[in-house]
Write a structure and sequence with these properties.
The protein is mostly helical. Helices cover about 55% and strands about 5% of the residues. The protein is globular, with a radius of gyration of 16 Å.
Length: about 180
Amino acid sequence: MATTETEARWDAAAAPFTALVQAVADWDAPTPCDGWTAADLLDHVVTAERDFAARQGREVPVFDGSRSPRHLQWIKHEAAMSALAGDPEFTQRAMDTAVGAMTVGEALLHFHVFDLIVHRWDLARSQGVDEQFTDAEMDHVEAALESFGERAYTPGILGAAIPVADGAPRQERLLARLGRRA
């Protein structure tokens, strides 16, 4: 059970990602992220979160994949991240980000929940699944995109926006802004 609002919000975003990770049947399947397999995508999410924690003076252990399946590695990693999200000493510290001053908790939610939502869709697509975002998730991603501005389209972050038909559904329009085809 979450001990803080930050932890509750983190857990709410991590739960559907975790469910999808547990359902992956082919870790070598390509994702919509150019050149990445499902395994590469999960490694990216884990590494980005570990690096974020390390920059804030906290260590998230590396869970050796030679001893357990990838989904178990993710579950261990996510439990460590959830614990950090529930630690007010960690989450209430001030920090500067590319989009302005925030607390560590706000930055964790702003940047890394964005990743969990977007990469959940990427991971689902690698498995042939059509993942649907909730309105709240789309609100979060849209607000984050607005704050990122053109920096989001720096090479290695997002691909260029893709045109979509007038009247396309909201998720399709959002994915197109993220450089993804629905």
